[in-house]
Design goal:
Distance between the termini: 17 Å
Shape: elongated
Structural class: alpha+beta
Largest sheet: 5 strands, antiparallel
Strand content: 5-15%
Number of strands: 11
Length: 754
């Protein structure tokens, strides 16, 4: 592989006009497709194989034309202090508002509070339910404006009015912190490279890759039912890996220049060595993201595949466009150790192609060169590996303690900021009708095979009334055929509580007994039941997902490192970092630690998708640093260095760049904490803290400590397996062999042509 990528890098360097034109053309094509594509509709949130989804499908079949997936709104009215909603003036205002709402072209129905028993017992709060023909993301702006205008007119009449539901659902935005994250990445790149030109290359290529990926997602959003969150997550991951992959290749290019190679040769060798690590690091990320399909939740699968596509684009750009831009930059990208004029560099530095007579580790005057921070840290770790290992493991274990209290759920209006009308409507409904009113359960009774459907409906209703945590049970509402009915159940507890979850299971258990007696099937659905089923499905899928993703990546890393213990150590280190990151997420978003700093206005259960999504993404990103750092160690080891010295050498060449890559990735992820979407905010924080734990504790401390303790055993591989595995040559041994044979740039150029 190293030889192929070496040729590819040199070819891209030489044919830079064609390569640059190709990527610009792809960006233009994707941009045109995004601007001309129809707007994306609502994200399809089907959960195959769950009872809630089965009930939803039954409703679509037995109650046709009811727009089960249409948007809803609850316009909540509250009378001034000391007054009642039943007062003549307030009643007239509400009825006028209901009449105005019913005039909308997309409105399916509006329920009057006074005829639908939607006034609180104390008479201070009432609500009108509005049902629309289309989903919240498909509502026209004029319809949303009419809803807000009707609410405002009622406010002008002296009532407190708030609007809940998904009719006013807004497209999430990320805020200015995303730009701050990119700015931080730019500063880190300048500090790392000491050159504005070299720092600009990773940013430029990453932005082009993200532009192509996100534009493609936008262009296909309507056809594939991709939600707005999909493009935000693809942008988040694509930016992070795109900058990192380009960073490693540019860094290796500068190191090759420092060894006296010509620019084209340095570009080829940078792609042949660091590019090989980029390919395998990218493969681990793609495997982790595509592996989300095993959960069998279409929305999660689409998110994973879209993000994986953006990562694949980042890899291809790093292998082709980065060397092409290095060709354009020429001598403006300095060798390692040389500074640009802007940062104090002069003209007297060593030029590309100029060999040096000083030995490695010496200055030009023959005195020993001062060891960099990475070398000094690695030397300390290999001297005291056990102490560093214990300190790292204990520290991550302490951070992981809150994960034992993890509670899962999906966000509703109760998790919205208190500044939103949706959240205030949620609070008013809880005040007037109880906390469970915001999460009603819909029980669907299928009595098609029963001889007395009406009696079955009554029996189910009576059975539910006798259960604990039930406030109210609406009368059964049969369909036109009389074989299916819906029963609305109001719990006593809020939607995300354990008591409500227990009630859902109790209704299902009671339904099982009724089915055994009558043959009628009882199903529970609604947003609350759907959330419970999603959490259960994700929990059940976590272990198979871990086995699949970690297993495939483990096999891939065996091929890369030609070792058993190094990949095993990598996987165990990942588990430590992801558990510590989950602990931090629980502490902030569930317990409320530092919630003000993170902009978390409402604590509550952690999003159901968070653990499995974090496992997938963090595993892929963790393997990035493992591949980049440990391949440098293996490169030194296979070239004759002792195990401990190879660890120090790997840190000497890789620690600075890996540190910069981790800081950049953390900055990019942290930039999404400013998102208005709670899921994006939580994932941004979780990934940022996970990268911190994995890069600086696991890869920078635990990994070298373990390798120092294992010594040569770390690189042990059974002979039969060594013969069976393909030689992918990530370390570039084939390139060194070619150099030792005396093939110079001219010979290699001829190889590229042939």
């Amino acid at each position: 592989m190293a030889t192929f990528l070496y040729k590819l890098g040199r070819l891209a360097f030489r044919r830079r006009h064609f390569v640059a034109l190709m990527w610009v053309a792809l960006l233009t094509l994707a941009g045109v497709g995004a601007t001309s594509a129809p707007p994306a509709g609502t994200t399809s949130f089907s959960i195959p194989g769950t009872e809630a989804q089965k009930a939803f499908d039954l409703l679509e079949e037995r109650f046709p034309g009811t727009s089960a997936d249409g948007a809803t709104a609850r316009v909540v009215f509250k009378a001034p202090s000391g007054e009642k909603m039943t007062d003549a003036g307030h009643k007239a205002t509400v009825e006028r508002t209901v009449a105005d709402l019913a005039d909308g072209s997309e409105v399916a129905s509006v329920a009057d509070p006074y005829t639908g028993n939607a006034v609180s017992k104390d008479g201070t709060i009432a609500y009108a339910s509005v049902k629309y023909d289309v989903s919240g993301m498909e509502l026209e702006d004029s319809t949303k404006d009419a809803l807000e205008d009707a609410a405002q007119q009622a406010r002008d009449a002296g009532l407190t009015v708030e609007v809940g539901g998904d009719a006013l659902q807004a497209v999430p935005h990320t805020g200015a912190t995303e730009v701050i994250g990119i700015a931080v990445a730019a500063v880190v790149l300048v500090i790392t490279f000491g050159s504005l030109v070299a720092a600009g290359l990773p940013l430029l290529t990453a932005l082009i890759g993200v532009g192509i990926g996100v534009s493609s997602i936008t262009a296909l959003a309507s056809a594939l039912e991709l939600g707005s969150t999909t493009s935000i997550l693809a942008m988040m991951i694509g930016l992070a890996v795109g900058i990192d992959y380009a960073l490693f290749i540019v860094s290796r290019y500068r190191a090759e220049l420092a060894e006296g190679r010509e620019h084209e040769e340095a570009a080829g060798r940078a792609v042949g060595t660091a590019g090989s690590a980029v390919v395998f690091a990218g493969l681990t990320v793609v495997i982790a993201l595509v592996g989300l399909a095993v959960v069998n939740i279409p929305m999660l699968t689409k998110m994973g595949i879209a993000a994986a596509g953006t990562v694949a684009i980042a890899v291809l750009i790093a292998l082709t466009m980065v060397p092409a831009l290095l060709g354009y930059a020429g001598r403006r990208v300095k060798p390692t150790g040389a500074k640009s004029k802007l940062l104090g560099g002069g003209r007297g530095g060593k030029k590309a192609g100029e060999k040096t007579d000083t030995k490695a580790g010496e200055k030009a005057d023959g005195k020993p060169a001062k060891a960099n921070l990475g070398t000094r840290w690695a030397s300390f770790v290999v001297r005291r590996p056990l102490a560093v290992l214990l300190l790292g493991v204990i520290g991550l274990g302490a951070a992981a303690i809150p994960a034992a209290s993890l509670e899962l759920g999906l966000p509703d209006d109760g998790s919205q900021p208190t500044s939103t009308t949706q959240r205030r409507a949620y609070d008013l409904l809880s005040e007037g009708f109880g906390p469970g009113f915001n999460g009603p359960l819909m029980v669907v009774v299928d009595a098609k095979g029963s001889d007395a459907p009406k009696q079955v409906f009554t029996d189910v209703s009576d059975e539910i009334k006798d259960l604990e945590d039930v406030v109210a049970v609406a009368p059964p509402a049969p369909n036109k055929g009389g074989d299916t009915a819906t029963i609305t159940v109001i719990p006593d507890s809020k939607p995300s509580s354990v008591q409500t979850e227990d009630l859902v299971h109790a209704i299902r258990d009671a339904g099982g007994d009724i089915e055994a007696d009558t043959g009628a099937e009882t199903l529970v659905t609604g947003s609350t039941a759907m959330n419970i089923d999603v959490s259960q499905k994700l929990n059940d899928a976590l272990v198979p997902y871990l086995v699949l993703v970690v297993g495939l990546a483990f096999l891939l890393l065996i091929v890369v490192f030609r070792s058993i213990l190094v990949p095993l150590k990598a996987a165990l280190g990942f588990l430590l970092s992801v558990m510590a990151a989950l602990g931090a997420v629980v502490a902030v978003f569930q317990w409320g630690w530092l919630s003000g700093l993170m902009g978390v206005e409402e604590t509550g259960p952690v999003m159901s998708m968070m653990p499995i999504f974090m496992v997938g993404v963090v595993f892929g990103l963790a393997m990035d640093y493992e591949v980049f750092l440990v391949t440098r160690m293996r490169e030194a080891y296979v070239h004759g260095e002792k195990p401990n010295q190879a660890v120090v050498t790997g840190f000497k060449h890789g620690a600075r760049v890996v540190t910069a890559a981790a800081v950049i990735m953390m900055a990019v992820f942290a930039g999404f904490i400013g998102s208005s979407e709670s899921m994006v905010k939580m994932i941004g924080f979780g990934l940022a803290i996970a990268v911190f734990f994995d890069a600086f504790v696991v890869r920078m401390a635990i990994v070298p400590a373990v390798l120092a303790l294992l010594g040569r055993k770390a690189w042990w591989l059974p002979k039969w397996l060594d013969r069976a595995l393909p030689n992918v040559d990530v370390e570039g041994e084939g390139l060194r062999t070619a150099e030792e044979r005396g093939s110079g740039p001219d010979e290699d150029r001829e190889l590229v042509r042939t």
